[in-house]
Automatic annotation (TrEMBL):
Function: Cell division protein that is part of the divisome complex and is recruited early to the Z-ring. Probably stimulates Z-ring formation, perhaps through the cross-linking of FtsZ protofilaments. Its function overlaps with FtsA.
Superkingdom of origin organism: Bacteria
Stored InterPro entries: Cell_div_SepF, Cell_div_SepF/SepF-rel, SepF-like_sf
Pfam families: SepF
The name this protein goes by in its record: Cell division protein SepF
UniProt KW Zinc keyword: no
Biological process annotations from GO: cell division
Keyword line: Cell cycle, Cell division, Septation
Keyword NADP in record: no
Species in which this protein is naturally found: Saccharopolyspora rosea
PANTHER family: CELL DIVISION PROTEIN SEPF (PTHR35798:SF1)
Amino acid sequence: MVKTLHPRNYNDVYYIGDYFRRGNAVLMNLTSLANDEARRVVDFAAGLVLGRGGDIDRIDTKVFLLRPSGVDRGDG
């Protein structure tokens, strides 16, 4: 399952972490955030992914896919 999230502010990183720790891939769409706040969310996500042994992929400008360990991209 891929959970798509559109954080409104940095406080929404709680939901990113919660879904990711449950083993779900998370698609973060940060397009509604200012650049500095989006950077903070990406920094959080990068630390989360590194600490949990997953991967992070940039899909588009301000759109990122977080994949827990064992979940591949599925692009063949």
